[in-house]
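Convert to structure. Protein one:
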Amino acid sequence: MSDQETAVDVVDSRLTGAELLAAAAAEVTSWPLVSASRARQVRWVAGEYTRALAHAGHPLSEDDADITTVFRLEPVHTYLQLARTGQLRVRKAADPKKGSDHSEQTRLEVLRLLVTACGAETYAELPPQPDPSGKPPVAKRPRSLLRAQLTQLADAPDATTSQLRMLAIGAVVSDTGARAGEMCAGTIEDLSPTLEELRLVRRGQGWSESEAYTELLALSALSRAGLKRWLPERQALLGLVGGTATALWVSLHGNHHDGQPVPAGTPLMPRGLARAWTRAVTETNIELAGQPSWEPLPVRMEQLRRGVQPKAQRTLMAPDAELAAEILDDIALVARRYVDIHAQEPGSTAELEARLAVRRSVRAAWSQGIEHVVQLHALADAGLADVASLAAVGWEPVLLAAIDRGLGWGQPSKAAAPG
C-alpha cells in the first residue's frame, strides 16, 4: 500500500504500550481504503498485543514498548507465540493450543499496517508471513453431481422460492467461484442483458478498496435458467419494499432490526446469504432423500467455490466517459439500422445481421459499466421501446422487469422510455 494511497498521519512517537497501539489502530482504521472487516482485525490485533505486554513472558513492559522496540523481532515473535497458543484470548477456547496459519497471516498483515501508522519502518523486524494451507479442490465427479442435482431442481415445476434462490446462488457460485461478500455486493446492473455474463467485483479476505478489481465472467446455461426462475420470485418479494431496489439476492421473510420491522425483499448480507444457502440445502436434501439419482448438495457455500477456475475478463471499475459516449452513439446507429431493416425486410438475413449488431453493441456497453437504463434510453430513442422489440435484440424480459423495479417503477415499458 503506497503512501499516496493511505495518506498516513504518523502517530505521536512519545506514546508507549497500550496508548501507542490504540493510537496506531485508530489511525489505520481511519484510512478511507481500509474495509470494515480489516478494521475489526486491526482492533483485534492491537488488543491482543496490548494483553501480551502485560503477560509475564513478554520481554517488554508497558513503558518499554515504544515505536523503536515494539515491532522488533523478539517482542513480535513472543506476541505471536502467546497468541498462537491461546494465552491472549479474552474468552477461553475449546482447544487453546490450536492455532491457524490464516490467523498468523492476518496478525502479520495488521502489524505491517500498524508499523506504517507509527512511522516505524526503520525499527520494524517483522517475520515473513506463513504460506496459508490450501484447501483440497472439489473433484470433478462431485462437481458434476452438484450440477446434475441443480439441473434437476431447475426442471422441477413445483420448486419453492427458497429452492429457486438456492438454485440460482449455487449455479452462479459454481460458475464464478464468488465469495458470499462478492455475491451480496451484486446488483441487477451486474447481469448482462442476455443473462449470459456476470460482472463481479473481486475482494479477497481482509480486502481494502485499493485491492478490489472487476471481472466479467461467463454464466452457464444452468445459471441462466436459475436466474430466469429466481428474478420473478425476487420481483414478488419486493412488494413491501418501497423506492429503489437493485440487490440481486434478497431475503424471503420479514424480520426485525433495532426493534423496527424489516420486510421481505431486503438485501442479503454475507452471513445471511451463507445461512440461507445452508438452510435451503438442508431442507432440500431431507425432502429429496431417497429419490432416484438424488445426491445430497453441499451444505456450505465454501464447498461450491473450491476447485472453480472460471475464465474471466478484467474490466474497468467505472466506465470511461469518452468511450461510453462512443459506444452509446454506436448503439443508436445500429439500432436505427435494425429498425429500418426490420420494417422493410422482416425475417431476412440482413435483419438477422442488424439484430446481432445491436446485441454486440449492447454487450459492449454493459461490459464497460454503462448502466442498463442509459442503454435502454438510447434504444428507445432509436425506436426499440417495448419488451418484444428489446427481447428481439437480446434483452431478457425478466431482467427488464427487474430494471424497472430497481428504479422504483413497475412496468417494463417505463425502463425503455426516454427521459
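Protein two, convert as well:
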Amino acid sequence: MPQHQDQVAEAIAPSERQRLALYCREVTEARWFALTVFAVILANAVLLGLETYSGLVEEWHGWLRLAEHACLAAFTVEILLRMAAHADHPRDFWRDPWNVFDLAVVLCTFAPVVRENTTVLRLLRLARVLRTARFLPQLRIVLVAVGRSLPGTLSFLLVGALLLYVYAMVGWVFFARYDPEHYGSIGRAVLTLFLLMTLDGIGDAVRDGLEISRWSLLYYASYVLLASFVLVNVLIGVVLTSLDEAKDMDEEREPPRARRPTPEPPDQQLLLQRIEAARRALEDLERHLAPAVGPTPPRTGEAGEREQSVSSVEGRL
C-alpha cells in the first residue's frame, strides 16, 4: 500500500525540469520582460548610431564599451531564459524561427573570429535591431510576407528584365543615332528605361522622342503601360497575397502559444495526466487486493470519495 502511494506521488509531482520550464515561461511571457528586451534593443541601436561620431567615441570610449557589454549580457540572459522555458519540450524552441535567429546572433558575437573583425561585429549588432520584429506583430507579419513573396518576386524580375531588354533593343535601333547619351548602347538604354519605369523624366523623354519620330509616342506609351502599371500592379498583388498568408500563419501560431501552461490557472493537460496516473495506480491496487478480499463491494469511504473527486475534476475540465 505505501509503495503504491509513493508511485502515485511520483507520477503526480512535477519534475524539476517542468518546474523550471513553467517558471521561465512565466517570465518570458510577461509584459515587463518583453518591454525590457525591446528597450535594450533600442538602446543597442542608439549605441550603434553614436559610434558613428568619432569625437564622441574618443571621449566616451570606455562608457560605450561598457554599455555594449551590458547589452550583450542582457541578450545572453534573455536567450538562456527562452531556452529554459522549453526545458520540458526542447524541440519547441527550434520550431520558432525567431528563436533560432536570436540564438545565432548571440552565439556569433562570442565567436573569436567575429570578435576580432570589427566590420562583422558591427553588422551583427545591426542585426539585433531586426529583433524588434519579434515584439511588433505587424512588423513581424510584414517581414514574413516579404520572405514568402520572394519566389513570386523572382518571377516578376525575370518578366521585367525581358521587357526591359526588348524595349531597350527597340530604343537602341530607333534612337541610338539621334540620342546616343541615352540609347547609345544596350546598357545605357536599359538604364534609361529603368529610370523611366518610375515615371521620372517621362515628359522630357517623350518630347525628345517626338522630335525624332511621331512613333516614339507609341513606344513610350506602351512601355509605361506595361512597365509602370501592369508589372508594378502584379508585384503589389504578389506582396498582398503573401501578406494575407503571413497573417493566417501568425493567427495559426497564436492559439498554441495561448495554451502554454502557466502556474495560474494550472495546466489542464498536466492535471489530466496526474489524474490518469492516479487512476492507473488505484486500478493496480484493486487488482492486487482482489484475490485476497474476493468480490469488490461498492466503493465507500476514502477510496470512493477519492474516485468521486477524480471524476468530478474530470467533469469540470
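The CA atoms of residues 51 and 57 lie 6 Å apart. The chain has a mean pLDDT of 75.
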